[in-house]
Design a protein that fits this description.
single chain; about 130 residues; alpha/beta; 2,3-Dihydroxybiphenyl 1,2-Dioxygenase, domain 1; about 20% helix
Length: about 130
């Protein structure tokens, strides 16, 4: 039986572009995303009302395309279960990485998953209505 509700939703998407500044202008000026930071050759952008700081990560590259697509787990336990399942297949990534766009690495190598789907607001209330429900 498949693991239901372990992956909460799509995280951020890294898009590679040979015209970084033009791409940043397009996403900010015409689509309304906000520039939230830079990491190396990448510019981090946030869509309105996204509770995470990064929705799209634009990376300067010689060609265009999708660099990485991340998924947000329902919580730390769900993330740990998914990591264990992936590691059991022998297909785990080479090692942990961390950027402001992906968050801190876990103790297991899984750079493309974060467990921040149920973050809370400063008042302590869940930012999503489904947080805490199973």
């Amino acid at each position: 039986m498949p693991p239901l509700h372990e992956i909460a939703h799509l995280g951020h998407v890294e898009l590679r572009t040979p015209v970084l500044e033009e791409s940043v202008e397009f996403f900010t000026r015409y689509l309304g995303l906000t520039r939230t930071g830079e990491v190396g050759d990448s510019v981090l952008l946030r869509a309105w009302d996204d509770y995470e700081t990064t929705t799209i990560k634009l990376t300067g590259h010689r060609t265009s395309g999708v660099g990485r697509t991340t998924l947000r787990a329902a919580g730390p336990e769900a993330l740990a279960r998914r990591v264990a399942e992936i590691e059991a297949t022998g297909r785990a990534p080479a090692g942990p990485t961390a950027t402001p766009a992906t968050g801190p690495p876990t103790s297991s190598p899984t750079p493309t998953a974060t467990s921040s789907a149920c973050t809370t607001s400063p008042s302590g209330t869940p930012r999503r209505p489904s947080c805490g429900r199973r």
